[in-house]
Amino acid sequence: MLIQWSEKYETGVSEIDNQHKEIISQLNRLHDAIVSGLGKDVILDILEFAGNYASKHFSYEENCMNKYKCPVAKENEEAHRAFIQRFEEIKTQLSGSDVDTKIVLDVYRELRDWIKSHILKVDTNLKSCVGKLS
């Protein structure tokens, strides 16, 4: 299932929203590759993207949450650490074996679930905090 960007994903910080759009774009790229039978061919690129995304985006987002005194800042940091740990586990798992369809689908589901749960339930809390300081 492709995810389309909409207002419900907005955080009130355009840089964060643009970064979220990019992770959604990468998830949709993985979806398209899976549907066309090429999921194994792009999964390593997606994992590399997710690692780079996590290191840059998470830091920026956490700084914004602290700057705007967002009440979910600590929850956000903890979720980010869990995301990083999980994707390190997946990369380790892939380094010692062939890529199979199951791992590709697992990565897709985890990214999709992250977007649906984390961005919608945690990150969007930032919007009301930004509004208070604007």
Commentary on this structure:
The chain has helices spanning 14-35, 39-67, 73-95, 101-121, 126-133. Helix content is 77%, strand content 0%. The longest helix is centred in the middle third of the chain and has 29 residues, at 39-67. α2 packs antiparallel against α3, α2 packs parallel to α4 and α3 runs antiparallel to α4. The chain has a single domain, classed as Up-down Bundle (Four Helix Bundle (Hemerythrin (Met), subunit A)). The chain has 134 residues and is mainly α.
Give a quick set of tags describing it:
134 residues; mainly alpha; Four Helix Bundle (Hemerythrin (Met), subunit A)
The domain tally reads 1
What is the level-2 CATH architecture name?
Up-down Bundle
Shape category: globular
Q: Characterize the largest beta sheet: strand count, sense, and whether it forms a barrel.
A: none
Please give the share of residues in helix: over 70%
- Output the number of helix runs: 5
Q: What is the first-to-last residue Cα distance?
A: 36 Å
Q: β content, as a range?
A: under 5%
DSSP summary, beta strand count = 0
Question: Could you say which structural class the secondary elements and strand pairing correspond to?
Answer: mainly alpha
CATH top level assignment: Mainly Alpha
Roughly what is the average pLDDT, rounded to an integer?
90
In CATH terms, what is the fold-level topology?
A: Four Helix Bundle (Hemerythrin (Met), subunit A)
Uncertain runs with pLDDT below 50, 5 residues or more?
none
For CATH, the homologous superfamily is named as: Hemerythrin-like
**Succession of helices and strands:** HHHHH
